[in-house]
Structures are given as C-alpha cells and as structure tokens.
Amino acid sequence: MSEASELPKREEEEDLTPEPEDQSDDSSEEEASGDTDMDFLRNLFSSTLGLGSPEKILDELTLEGVAQYIKSGKCKNIICMVGAGISTSAGIPDFRSPGTGLYANLQKYNLPYPEAIFQIDYFKRHPEPFFALAKELYPGQFKPTVCHYFMKLLKDKGLLRRCYSQNIDTLERVAGLQGEDLIEAHGTFYTSHCVSFCCRKEYNLDWMKEKIFSDDIPRCDKCSSLVKPDIVFFGENLPIRFFTSMKMDFPRCDLLIIMGTSLQVQPFAGLVGRVSKSCPRLLINMEKAGQADPLFGMLGFGGGMDFDSDKAYRDVAHISTCDDGCMALADLLGWKAELEEMVKTEHARIDSQDKKEKASESKGAAAKASSASVAPETKKEE
C-alpha cells in the first residue's frame, strides 16, 4: 500500500515523539525530548543574540546552484527525505488528491471514516478492508521511478548517506537501495509480524503475498493471531532505528534533498530542522512545503524552510514532479544519460523477471489442474 507509500497523514499524531513499541526503553523518548529542548535553546540564543551566523554555501539558490555544489566535491553526505510524491508516476495513488486519492475511493469498504483502514484498533477488529486494499496496491506490481533510480545513482557515486522514506511500497529496495541505505520511517511490507505480543513471529514478503492474493486473512501458524505487515498504523510508534539513526546522520549531512512530501507529518517533518544551520536544503515537489512561522522554525517543527525572504540563504524550491526535477538535476550534473540508461535497463530486467514468474505460475497451475483431473479416473479404476 502506499502512497504505498506515504502512510496516511497522521494529523492526530502531530506531536508523536515515540518510544517504539517492543523495541526500546523509556530512555529513547527521554533522549529525543532532551535533544529537542537543546536544539530549541541553541536556536533561540543564536537567533536572539545574533550568534553563530550561518555560512552561505550555495552560490545561488537554484537547482543550478545545488548542482554546482555537488560537483565541487565538498558534498559527500547527502540525505534524501521522500514521500508519496516520488511513487505516483509508478501508478501508486497518493492519499488526498480529490477524486483520485486513496481516501476518495474507499466507499466500497464501508468504513466509518477513511482513515479507519489504517487504524490499528479497527484493523484488529476488522482486518478485511485493509487486506482487500493491500491486494490492489501490493508491492511487486509497480516499477521504481526516475526519482528512485536517481537516489540509487547517488549511492553508486558514494554520495548518499541515507534515504529517509515515508513510503511503504518498497520501491527504494527494488531500485537497489539496501537495508543500511534506508530508514523506512513508516514501516514496510518487506516483513510482517504476528500482532500478538506473546508471539511476534516474523513472516517474509512472499508468505504475506501468497495469503493476500489467495484472499486469506493472514493468521499466524503458531498462535492463530492476525499477521500484519510491518507498516506503521495510526496508534503505533515509529521504528526505533528512525530515532537512533537520525541522531547520527543529520549532524553529518551536507546536503538535504526533500522530494514528494508535504512535510506535514511529525516527527518525520521535523527532520529538516536537524541538519546544521549552514546545510543547503533542496525541495523537489509540486508545491512549496515546510515553511513555518519563526517560532515553529526555532522549535524545529515543520523545518522553518525559507525560500523567498530577504534572509533566505540555503533553501531551494524546485517546483516540478519529482521525476522531472531529478532528471533536471542529473542533467546539470552530467549524469542524464547514465540515469536514463539505468531506468531503461532496470525496467527491462523487471519486466523480464515478471514474465518468467508468470510463466512459472501458469505452468504450476496447469500441472495442478492436470493432476486434479487425473485423480478421479485413478480412483475409478480402483
């Protein structure tokens, strides 16, 4: 599922500062809270007293300026923050677009309200709507986009420190990013677990796919409880790795690229405020996002992105689709032909693999049908 992507906007969880369930102790939440307090004090004193004026790194606040910075060789630790917008060109719907968004097309599931399909308590009582929707949007039916392969190109060139994704479609993995390259902030379909706290048995992607496509409600073969993909529902906490990694990654980041997200969902949106004050931030999106009033900017919520004021010195907004923006940046970097070839080759490989799998499935189904038709005759002869 996905924006299979960006999990439903967690408006009711805007103040989420979690201690991930089953995976952390109370100290994780306390440390995160302490970091936020210290960030606030540093920014407050810096802004009020005019201390520590940030260095301006970009020659110009344009895509060209960002490309020049990357080409300078001074940029070695790029972090990408991505949301649903990077997957829509793959055919995966976002959540809120009028008429075409996921929430506008859930009437057939007879939900009390659209977001209920991703509420953990509702899921435990009524799992059928979620698994019916999961069948429509299941990973493996879509190919990565230009944007996904641009991030793979960053990795291949030794420039990508990490990709922080709100998406649950696994397309970053399909494009070639590995587990260590990724922080799947809202979870993933890649693994699943029994929902029982006493069991928590793990299941892989193929096991869950078989259950979903046979229209079976996935249940644990050990304790018979429901089995849920490891995506973060409303009412659940984010993975502990999200919190531990951000403390190491963002202070070292020397370019933050934000793509396909409205920067409305906390705590993910607050990550833009965790880079150094001089770190350039590039937004590739269909509209500007992350702009906040000065107080929220000091707190780090929403990021306080500043694209247009006289004081703007590091934030760049490139308004376009994510694919077009990535291709334009690749062109400026001299990587366009390489990126186009990667997309072409990888899509051909995926298509070829899909044909082989479908042929194998057809052969297996034919063999099963043949075996079933022979069985009555054998019984009759006896």
UniProtKB/TrEMBL annotation:
<keyword id="KW-0808">Transferase</keyword>
<dbReference type="InterPro" id="IPR017328">
    <property type="entry name" value="Sirtuin_class_I"/>
</dbReference>
<feature type="binding site">
    <location>
        <begin position="166"/>
        <end position="169"/>
    </location>
    <ligand>
        <name>NAD(+)</name>
    </ligand>
</feature>
<feature type="binding site">
    <location>
        <position position="199"/>
    </location>
    <ligand>
        <name>Zn(2+)</name>
    </ligand>
</feature>
<feature type="binding site">
    <location>
        <begin position="261"/>
        <end position="262"/>
    </location>
    <ligand>
        <name>NAD(+)</name>
    </ligand>
</feature>
<feature type="compositionally biased region" description="Basic and acidic residues">
    <location>
        <begin position="346"/>
        <end position="361"/>
    </location>
</feature>
<feature type="region of interest" description="Disordered">
    <location>
        <begin position="346"/>
        <end position="382"/>
    </location>
</feature>
<keyword id="KW-0479">Metal-binding</keyword>
<dbReference type="GO" id="GO:0051239">
    <property type="term" value="P:regulation of multicellular organismal process"/>
</dbReference>
<feature type="binding site">
    <location>
        <begin position="94"/>
        <end position="96"/>
    </location>
    <ligand>
        <name>NAD(+)</name>
    </ligand>
</feature>
<dbReference type="InterPro" id="IPR026590">
    <property type="entry name" value="Ssirtuin_cat_dom"/>
</dbReference>
<keyword id="KW-0862">Zinc</keyword>
<dbReference type="InterPro" id="IPR029035">
    <property type="entry name" value="DHS-like_NAD/FAD-binding_dom"/>
</dbReference>
<feature type="domain" description="Deacetylase sirtuin-type">
    <location>
        <begin position="56"/>
        <end position="336"/>
    </location>
</feature>
<feature type="binding site">
    <location>
        <position position="194"/>
    </location>
    <ligand>
        <name>Zn(2+)</name>
    </ligand>
</feature>
<dbReference type="Pfam" id="PF02146">
    <property type="entry name" value="SIR2"/>
</dbReference>
<dbReference type="GO" id="GO:0017136">
    <property type="term" value="F:histone deacetylase activity, NAD-dependent"/>
</dbReference>
<feature type="binding site">
    <location>
        <begin position="84"/>
        <end position="88"/>
    </location>
    <ligand>
        <name>NAD(+)</name>
    </ligand>
</feature>
<feature type="binding site">
    <location>
        <position position="220"/>
    </location>
    <ligand>
        <name>Zn(2+)</name>
    </ligand>
</feature>
<feature type="binding site">
    <location>
        <position position="322"/>
    </location>
    <ligand>
        <name>NAD(+)</name>
    </ligand>
</feature>
<feature type="compositionally biased region" description="Low complexity">
    <location>
        <begin position="362"/>
        <end position="373"/>
    </location>
</feature>
<dbReference type="GO" id="GO:0070403">
    <property type="term" value="F:NAD+ binding"/>
</dbReference>
<dbReference type="GO" id="GO:0050793">
    <property type="term" value="P:regulation of developmental process"/>
</dbReference>
<comment type="function">
    <text>NAD-dependent protein deacetylase.</text>
</comment>
<keyword id="KW-0539">Nucleus</keyword>
<feature type="compositionally biased region" description="Acidic residues">
    <location>
        <begin position="12"/>
        <end position="37"/>
    </location>
</feature>
<feature type="compositionally biased region" description="Basic and acidic residues">
    <location>
        <begin position="1"/>
        <end position="11"/>
    </location>
</feature>
<keyword id="KW-0520">NAD</keyword>
<protein>
    <recommendedName>
        <fullName>NAD-dependent protein deacetylase</fullName>
        <ecNumber>2.3.1.286</ecNumber>
    </recommendedName>
</protein>
<dbReference type="GO" id="GO:0008270">
    <property type="term" value="F:zinc ion binding"/>
</dbReference>
<dbReference type="InterPro" id="IPR026591">
    <property type="entry name" value="Sirtuin_cat_small_dom_sf"/>
</dbReference>
<dbReference type="InterPro" id="IPR003000">
    <property type="entry name" value="Sirtuin"/>
</dbReference>
<dbReference type="InterPro" id="IPR050134">
    <property type="entry name" value="NAD-dep_sirtuin_deacylases"/>
</dbReference>
<comment type="similarity">
    <text>Belongs to the sirtuin family. Class I subfamily.</text>
</comment>
<feature type="binding site">
    <location>
        <begin position="285"/>
        <end position="287"/>
    </location>
    <ligand>
        <name>NAD(+)</name>
    </ligand>
</feature>
<feature type="region of interest" description="Disordered">
    <location>
        <begin position="1"/>
        <end position="37"/>
    </location>
</feature>
<dbReference type="GO" id="GO:0005634">
    <property type="term" value="C:nucleus"/>
</dbReference>
<feature type="active site" description="Proton acceptor">
    <location>
        <position position="186"/>
    </location>
</feature>
<feature type="binding site">
    <location>
        <position position="223"/>
    </location>
    <ligand>
        <name>Zn(2+)</name>
    </ligand>
</feature>
